[in-house]
Amino acid sequence: MVHSVTLCACLSLLTVLSCHSRVLPRLSFPKGSPGRSLNVFKNPDVYNTTTLLLSSDEGTLFIGARDAVLSIDVSQSDAMTMKEKLDWSPSEKDLADCAMKGKMKMDCHNFVRVLQVLNSTHMYACGTFAFSPRCIYINSKTLSMATGPSGKPEEGRSRCPYDPYQRNTAITVDGELYTGTVADYRGTRPVISRHLSEGSHVDVKLDDTLGWLEDPTFIRSTYVPSEEKVYFFFSETGREYDFIDKLTVSRIAQVCTSDVGGQRTLQKRWTTFAKAQLLCQAGQELPYNILQDIVTLSPPEGSSEDETLFYGIFTSQWQVNLGRSAVCAFSLKDIKKVFTGHYKVLNRDTLKWSTRVQEQIASPGECGLHNASDNTLRFVKDNFLADKSVQPVTQGLTLVSPDKSYSNIAAQRVRGARGRDYTLLYLLTESGFLHKAVLLKNGAHIIEEIQVFDQPQAVKNLLLSVSKGAVMIGSSEGVISVPMSNCSYYWSCAECVLARDPFCGWDPVMKLCTDIHTHDHLVQDVDGGNVSAQCTYVTPRSRSAQSRTLSGEVVSVSLNEVVHLQCPGASHLAKRHWERLNSQLSPKIYIQSDDGGLSFVATPSTLGPYLCQSEENGYTQTLGIYHVKQKSSPTVPPATRNRPHSTPSTEAGIKTSIFTTRLITPTPTEPRTEPDAEVDPTDSPEDSPAASTHSRSFTPSLGTEKQDSRKTELGETHPLTDKPSYFQELVVVSVLLALCISALLTIAFHRFGHFCHSRTVPQTPSSRRDAEKGGSATPQERESLRGHSSRLEKRNGQAPNGQSHAGQAHNGTSPIMPSNSMLNSSNGHLPNTPI
Ligand SMILES: *[C@@H]1O[C@H](CO)[C@@H](O)[C@H](O)[C@H]1NC(C)=O
Ligand SMILES: *[C@@H]1O[C@H](CO)[C@@H](O)[C@H](O)[C@H]1NC(C)=O
Ligand SMILES: *[C@@H]1O[C@H](CO)[C@@H](O)[C@H](O)[C@H]1NC(C)=O
Ligand SMILES: *[C@@H]1O[C@H](CO)[C@@H](O)[C@H](O)[C@H]1NC(C)=O
Ligand SMILES: *[C@@H]1O[C@H](CO)[C@@H](O)[C@H](O)[C@H]1NC(C)=O
């Protein structure tokens, strides 16, 4: 039994070790935590508040909802109040038509999917309008419908999708609307187009040329003034990888705002359309190939526009990375380089892509081709897919989500103490948490996670209001605003520094953690989080808080009772361990749980003081002291308690199964109501209220129930009593349970190890076979995804490796097996490398 306990402890330690550099959020705030309060805008008459637009002064939030457009006052940081509401519903006839088409009633509304500022007085909005898209002009102040130049509501075709579940993108530049969406009811005709153009600057759209777009999912668009280009981000089928059934690739496409189409060839069609692959991949691993969201981060003041960064969230089509996502950053400089480089050419007879061998007649993607010759424009028409992929900056992943995949991203540059700039990312998980991460030289650090939704939301939107210091999240359930930081949550210099939040610094005079903008001489170390180097001031306030905590709590127990001590502490990055004065804790007697708790059986040898210590980033602090004393037995002299006892007494105790147990828990817990639970007559009712007070003072915020503990830590210490709950033979059961758990953990650990292995060494045959269940990549796919496209064309043109493929097919074996043997024989090099 002792062995099983030891084994159990060992295994739980091992499972904590991670096999990948996935970062855990340091703090976790479940919904309702007082440390991170949310402002929620909800209105019983307003649904699907998903499209967000912030006014230029950031005082008003415009919301595109279901059958409505709203304006909300967000000038106060702690409240969101509705100003105006514009009802924009389809008529009865429209609804009847929609139902006739066989559409669900709940989808036959007008879902506003485009909401853009047009000029200083007006906005432009488009909605699905019961599967018959429409657009309107809106007076921004009164939020009333305005008449446009045509004098009546405009058709929304190719500006807004028909289907509210289809993704689209739109952006206005100089009063013109650039959109990426589908232009038909069935959603099969994707188009990138420009609308609301005037005079000789005509509306332009994409030519129906084969291959310009391949079943795309539009994500976002952005305007880069220095380039005079609008960039579109989307994912689509990567037809250049033609040996894979359906490989999704992520793309960036560009058009020039000066484009007005060609004169004969490409009339009223883009002459400047070009696209390239965005490749989010780490080393030899499979890429995260499906773009979910992407955001533009402007360069720091004074830097070149080329330093503009695009932070994208990508998920993977392959099983190995299912449920995770990666963040990759791409620079405008790299994007420009790819677009000015070589292009692939599509053979319209064979529908195969190849690197261009013919002479270069024009530079595709160049602005100002509208006056070019037909010959040039015909060339442009065939050369629009850049040969090279855009690689992420630093050649790797910026961040990999800890376990849940991310759906939305926002980015911000924050000036910390001493004028240092940091990049902050806000990432929304599918499950409804907001992660705030700071990017540091040696990787990302997730400062905190805040739960914003109870239920996962299908459609959502993320927006930053930098001047108001708020993150706004639109969803079908309402709009939520979260302050970017809450420095006052950090109660000591150590916590303030360990948080590594660029918004927060420790004020050594006022002795509080406060917003960095309030004061110049705040203590902060975002890069190092080095407490000992920063917190040299020992302040009266922190000393008193410290001494109160360190005075310790008395825990009264009966002999042979199982004692559980909770170690308070909020940080998921801290290692917590227990100590007794003058002695090490033998794992034969003590069990330390994953949550930092300590369990043991009260015997004369285990009575006495216990210290819980936490170590984070090289800084150790004592989080709690307990004095375990025998209950109502003044007869136990201190000498007896301190005398070392041997373990046999413990084991003997287990055998006789006469233990009762007591939980020293952080929350008031009701006595467990097991029918055969033995109730100790000494369990007097007046213990209960005191118990709850006591336990709260010990556990700063690890979960919802524990949130307010921090305050009590600073406040008075409460006399210790706690609520005991007794169980017959619980120890026997717990030891049996420990056995079971350790067996389970053994299995889990083995699997875990295997999983790590399969992630880091993707080429081994066994892990490959595992991955195939969910659709894995063939070596050719891997090769091609690495961007060695030249090899690809050789394959298309029956180069050496084409034969090996044919051979496999004739053998009638799975193409995977020979590939694996080749992989092994070539020592990890890919088989289709041309000799
Ligand atoms: C910040 O944290 C403090 C301490 O937990 C809490 O009292 C306060 O309400 C929090 N403020 C916000 C805006 O969440
Ligand atoms: C609208 O909101 C409801 C829940 O309130 C959701 O079930 C539905 O999917 C949403 N519709 C769209 C188009 O987002
Ligand atoms: C903004 O656009 C609307 C609609 O085209 C137009 O009526 C209005 O005059 C414009 N306002 C300004 C200030 O240009
Ligand atoms: C295009 O060419 C025509 C005549 O060749 C000329 O009148 C026009 O100004 C040119 N447009 C631009 C934008 O250069
Ligand atoms: C923290 O700073 C101290 C003194 O500046 C230094 O000795 C120590 O190595 C640093 N610790 C870490 C973890 O960087």
TrEMBL record:
Gene Ontology molecular function terms on file: chemorepellent activity; semaphorin receptor binding
Record's compositionally biased regions (Basic and acidic residues): 705-721, 780-796
TM regions (residue ranges): 730-749
Stretches with biased composition (Acidic residues): 676-686
Annotated GO CC locations: plasma membrane
UniProt main location, coarse: membrane
GO biological process: axon guidance; neural crest cell migration; positive regulation of cell migration; semaphorin-plexin signaling pathway
Family annotation (InterPro entries): Ig-like_fold, Plexin_repeat, PSI, Semap_dom, Semap_dom_sf, Semaphorin, WD40/YVTN_repeat-like_dom_sf
Domain Sema: 24-484
Family: Belongs to the semaphorin family.
Stated name of the protein: Semaphorin-4A-like
Organism lineage: Eukaryota, Metazoa, Chordata, Craniata, Vertebrata
Protein encoded by which gene: LOC113119219
